[in-house]
Design goal:
The complex is a heterodimer. Helices cover 3% and strands 51% of the residues of chain A. By secondary structure, chain A is mainly β. Chain B is globular, with a radius of gyration of 12 Å. Classes of the chains: A mainly beta, B alpha+beta.
C-alpha cells in the first residue's frame, strides 16, 4: 500500500430470493469518475466458513450479489458478504461509500436502498475520533410498521470471538440477549415487535469491538423485507 | 491489492502464521500483522504514529489484542 491508500472493510447480508445490487462507489460528480483501487469480495456462511470470493474489477459500477452469491452459497439461505476495498485518500478524502438496492423478486413490496455497513477503517486519524465507539443503536419509527423485526450481527474479525449484548427497549423495559460469534460468523436474532402492549422503540448492540449490524424488518403477511438498515454510532 | 485469504484458522500456538504478515490488521492506521509482529519482537510497540491503533473504529480491537498476546507483548 502507498501512503495515500486507505482501507475499508464493509459487510452486508445476502438472502435468497432478492435482487441485491451493490453500487461500489456512491460518490459521483460531473468532473471525476471515482473508482476504488481494488476490491475483494468474500462470502461466509453463518459459522464463519468462507464459501468463496474473488477480486472484483474496481471499474465495475454495480456488483450483482443476486448473481454472484448463489453460485457460492447454494446451500444456505443467508450469507455474509464482505467488501475489502483499497482507495486513494486523495480521491475519497473521507471514505468511499457502497450503497445497495434490495428487492424481493416478483414482489409488489417497494425496493429498499441502503448504505452498506462500513465496519473496519474509514476513520482516519484526522477525523479525530478518540473514544471507544462500540455501542450502536437503531431507533424505530413511532408509527406502527406492521412488521416483525430482527437484528443480524456479523463478526469481521479474523481471529477473535466477539461477545456482544443486544438490548431491545419497550418503554422502560429492556430485554437483553447475549451473543457470541466466532471469526467471520454471523447470526440473526429475532426481536419481538411488541411486548406486553408496548412497541419496540430501539435496539442497541454493545461489544468489545465493532460488528457488522443491521436491523431487518419483514412484512408480517408476506415476509418481504421492508427495512434493512445498519445500526449507528450516535456518540463519539 | 489482493490480500491473502481472510479465512480464520491460519494460526499456530504462537499466533498467526508468517503467511499472514502482509494482511492488514488495522484498517484505520494501515498496520499489518507483520509490522505488529516485528514491532513486538523488537520491543517497539506501539510504533510512532500508530498509538491509536484499535481505538478509532474499534473494529480491529479483538484481533489486535489477540496478536499482541500471541506476539508476547506486555504493557509497560
Amino acid at each position: 500500500m502507498s501512503s495515500d491508500d486507505g482501507a475499508l472493510l464493509s459487510a452486508t447480508f445476502w438472502e435468497a430470493g432478492y435482487e441485491h445490487l451493490v453500487e461500489l462507489v456512491h460518490q459521483r460528480d460531473a468532473l471525476a469518475h471515482r473508482r476504488l483501487n481494488s476490491l475483494d469480495v468474500a462470502v461466509y456462511d453463518a459459522a464463519g466458513t468462507r464459501l468463496g470470493g474473488a477480486p472484483v474489477d474496481p471499474r465495475l459500477e454495480v456488483l450483482d450479489l443476486s448473481a454472484l452469491v448463489p453460485e457460492l452459497a447454494a446451500s444456505v439461505d443467508r450469507a455474509m458478504v464482505t467488501f475489502d476495498a483499497r482507495y486513494d485518500t486523495r480521491v475519497f478524502n473521507y471514505r468511499p461509500h457502497h450503497y445497495a438496492f434490495l428487492h424481493r423478486l416478483g414482489a409488489e413490496t417497494p425496493p429498499l436502498y441502503y448504505a452498506v455497513n462500513a465496519v473496519l477503517g474509514g476513520v482516519p486519524d484526522r477525523i479525530g475520533a478518540t473514544n471507544i465507539n462500540n455501542f450502536e443503536t437503531y431507533v424505530f419509527r413511532r408509527q406502527p410498521l406492521g412488521a416483525r423485526f430482527s437484528v443480524v450481527l456479523g463478526n469481521l474479525a479474523r481471529f477473535a470471538t466477539a461477545e456482544a449484548q443486544l438490548f431491545a427497549y419497550y418503554g422502560s423495559e429492556r430485554v437483553a440477549r447475549d451473543v457470541a460469534l466466532g471469526p467471520k460468523a454471523h447470526v440473526l436474532v429475532e426481536v419481538a415487535s411488541e411486548r406486553e402492549g408496548r412497541r419496540l422503540q430501539r435496539v442497541e448492540v454493545k461489544a468489545l469491538f465493532r460488528l457488522a449490524s443491521y436491523v431487518v424488518g419483514r412484512r408480517v403477511d408476506s415476509g418481504d423485507i421492508v427495512l434493512f438498515d445498519h445500526l449507528f454510532t450516535y456518540i463519539k | 491489492m489482493t490480500c491473502p485469504s481472510s479465512d480464520p484458522g491460519e494460526t499456530t500456538d504462537t499466533g498467526p502464521t508468517a503467511s499472514l504478515d502482509p494482511v492488514l490488521l488495522c484498517y484505520c492506521t494501515n498496520l499489518t500483522i507483520g509490522a505488529l509482529r516485528e514491532a513486538c519482537r523488537a520491543g517497539r510497540w506501539p510504533l510512532p504514529g500508530l498509538e491509536r491503533t484499535g481505538r478509532l473504529c474499534t473494529g480491529c480491537a479483538g484481533d489486535l489484542l489477540y496478536c499482541l498476546r500471541a506476539f508476547g507483548w506486555r504493557a509497560r
